[in-house]
Amino acid sequence: MRKWQLLIAAVFLLAALFVPLFGLTDYTLQILFRVFLFAALGLAWNLVGGYAGQLSLGHAAYFGVGAYGLALFSKLGISPWAAVLLGVVLAMICAAMIGSVSFRLRGPYFALCTIAFAEVLRLVAKNLPNVTGGDVGVQVPLLFAHSPVRSFYWSVVLLTAFALGLSAWIERSRFGYYLMAIREDQDTALSVGVNAARCKLWALLISAAITGLGGALYASMFLFIVPDQVLPMEISTEIAIVAMLGGAGTLIGPLVGSVLLESAAEIFKNVFKEANLLIYGVLIIVVVLFMPEGIVGTFTRKLALFKKAPAVPFAAPVPATIEAESERAALNE
Amino acid sequence: MVNWFYIPLQGIINGLLTGALYALIGMGMALIFGVMRIVNFAHGAFLMMGMYATYVVFQATGVSPYYEFPLAGILLFFVGYATYMGLLRPIRGQVDFMVILLTMGLALILTDGAQLVFGADYHQINIPLLSRNIHLGSQISINAPWLVSFAIAMALAGALYWVVTHTMFGRAARAIAQNPYAAPLMGINVNRVQAVAFGIGSAAAGISGALLLPVFYLFPEVGNQFKLKSFVMVVLGGMGSIQGAAIAGLVLGVVESLTSLYWGNEWALAVDFVLFILVLSLKPSGIFGSQRA
After folding, report:
1. Which neighbouring-strand residues pair with B123?
2. Residues in chain B within 8 Å Cβ distance of A126
3. Which one of A319, B52, B54, B256 has the largest count of C-beta atoms within 10 Å of its C-beta?
4. Cross-chain residue pair A113–B116, CB shorter than 8 Å
5. CA distance B62 to chain A (A)
6. How far is B132 from chain A (nearest CA, A)?
7. Which of A18-32, A175-189, B122-136 has the largest mean confidence?
8. B-chain residues near A288 (CB < 8 A)
9. How confident is the model at residue A1 (pLDDT cuts 50, 70, 90)?
10. Rounded to whole angstroms, how far apart are CA atoms B194 and B169?
11. Which pLDDT score is estimated for A20?
């Protein structure tokens, strides 16, 4: 099942690389850019929100820091690609700081804390016009001089492929199992020697790096950024929505989520005009009500019903004593 | 004469007047959080609904929002009750991610719906009371509508506190907040209590919206900032503690007012969040809470 998913995703991404050769308009490519950008961001979010089960609603922080990093470092005279790298490093430093405070909290407290950090960054970016340009905005250098729209599209597809490959590797690594153990029961994970704090922080650092890179690509594509564009809560929630509706903690869930939701959002914009967000909200509610494990999660569960059943022992073992029975009942709890 | 005294005093008074409304919003959120353990992202949208409902009635009848606010409360109670019964109850027991996501979807629907019906324009209403100022001494002045809304909000906050501490519903709600597994074993109908709590919490948001209408601009996204502030209050007060949220609301109002006075209005929300992060990292149970995060 997992192999098939990975294969389909790989073929899909490979096919996506050839899409620009079919003479699409720049507008269509920009929409596809957004689809794959959010796929990459969703995959990055999935490391923290999916595998480690930490509902981050502040990923706009890393996205915005990546974007502003590119803009501000290149304003200092650093070459654009070096500025991208510095922006990513800065996003990781932010992640280390945010993580060290927020990972001590659990559940809704964690989610709210990540929102708070992202909002503080947005407000600081808005209120320090001398540094960030404030609401007037700041110019971002173009990373690809030659056929920019295509190049941005390709780079974001490659970023998605990288995030997918990394997720696939992490999912089957010791680190990935640690993360999933933390998600299922942090106290038990701690008791068997998983260093939960360090594992969560590493997951966040990796996630922030990819998100920051995505932010830099996005900023450079638009050439000009303002705080409300790259740091708002809407970016954070959109990343989380894409990943969760696709299937948090599944390998290709965020990719599926992004392809479906971002294209749906685009179609809704054209068909329903002003009511597009309303329909989008209805779509979210419908998916939550009918596919509570996300699209991929629910489908794999349904499909698993039709897997070949493993051989079962002829008769169920009879418990020898009453103690054994109660022990078994306790285990089944 | 002594400006170093009167200017901050005026700031504190203004802060308390705003803070009373925050307190009501925060108490609604805290009630919902305590009983359901979910963060309601539609809280701001409910407030916005209360504001628009009051606006419509005001435009039709001309009755001051200070008499109309019960209508917004009743409307939002049923909206909240129906939301719980129709949307939240079916996914009870799912991961709380999904519940949060659902409330986000609901907020999108309500906000965009308001935009479709009323347009994205800013609205404001004008009542005679707005031009009245009450002077205390020569230095301090209080805008009359703020004083009225302060009185109403504080009375309602007191009433809500009484309901939670002295009625069977309140006792059941606190029992669920303390232990959601043991409460049904004690014969508490968790579904009904949660539905009513969600309704009351939403009604508090709606009433706050009605009280805000005369002194604030009205537009479809108006709820967003109050939603963020209610998160801050609920955490500051200790999650699920409604008296904590009320005090946190007053504190937040004063802090914001003093921030705007000395640093400028644009930093007020940032200071809210910094306060929030500080409290979460130093005392995660909240200033007034006893529960561990």
Report:
1. B218
2. 266
3. B54
4. no
5. 30
6. 34
7. A175-189
8. 91, 98, 101-102, 105
9. low
10. 10
11. 82
Q: How far is A273 from chain B (nearest CA, A)?
A: 10
Residues B153 and B250: their CA atoms lie apart, in Å, by 11
Spatial neighbors of A292 by CB under 8 A, at least 6 apart, are: A298, B91, B94, B95, B98
Q: For residue B158, how many other CB atoms are within 10 A of its CB?
A: 11
**Domain ranges in chain B?**
19-125+151-221
Tokens of B161: 């506190």
For residue A251, give both structure tokens: 């390998």
ipTM associated with this complex = 0.87
pLDDT in tens, A55-76: 899 999 999 999 999 999 998 8
User: Which residues between 103 and 132 in chain A have a beta carbon less than 8 angstroms from any beta carbon of chain B?
Assistant: 104-109, 111-113, 115-117, 119-120, 123-124, 126-127
Radius of gyration over every alpha carbon of chain A, rounded to an integer in angstroms: 22
Pairwise CA distance, residues A96 & A254, whole Å: 24
- At A200, the pLDDT band (50, 70, 90 cuts) reads very high
pLDDT at position B121: 87
Is some CB atom of chain A closer than 8 A to the CB atom of B33? yes
Pairwise CA distance, residues B159 & B162, whole Å: 5
What's the structural domain count of chain A? 1
pLDDT of residue B293: 38
B contacts of A283 (beta carbons < 8 Å) = 105
Q: Which residues of A271-303 are buried (b: 16+ CB within 10 A; e: fewer)?
A: eeeebbbbbbbbbbbebbbebbbbbbbbbbeee
- DSSP bridge partners of B133: B143
Least reliable range by pLDDT among A6-10, A11-15, B24-28, B239-243: B239-243
**Per-residue pLDDT band at A325 (split at 50, 70, 90):** low
**Does A61 reside within a domain?**
yes
What distance in Å separates the CA atoms of residue B61 and residue B48, rounded to the nearest whole number? 20
CA-to-CA separations, B48 to B28, B108, B118, in angstroms, rounded: 14, 12, 12
Q: Is residue A118 in a domain?
A: yes
Rounded Cα distance between A203 and A299, Å, is 26
**Cα–Cα dist B149/A277, whole Å:** 33
Global pTM reads 0.88
Taking residues B91-107, report their average pLDDT.
Answer: 85
What range defines the domain where residue A189 resides?
A: 26-232
| Closest to A67 (Cα-Cα) out of A50, A80, A53 | A80
Phi, psi (degrees; rounded to nearest 5) at B141:
-135, 145
Task: Look at residue A216 and tell me if it is in a domain.
Answer: yes
3-state helix, strand, coil in chain B (%, to 5): 75, 5, 20
For residue A78, is it within any domain?
Answer: yes
CA distances from A224 to A132, A147, B47, B75 (A): 12, 18, 34, 44
Q: What is the pLDDT of residue A320?
A: 54
Among A112, A62, A93, A100, smallest CA distance to A197 is for A100
DSSP string of A87-155?
HHHHHHHHHHHHHHHHTTS-HHHHHHHHHHHHHHHHHHHHH-HHHH-GGG-EE---S--SSHHHHHHHH
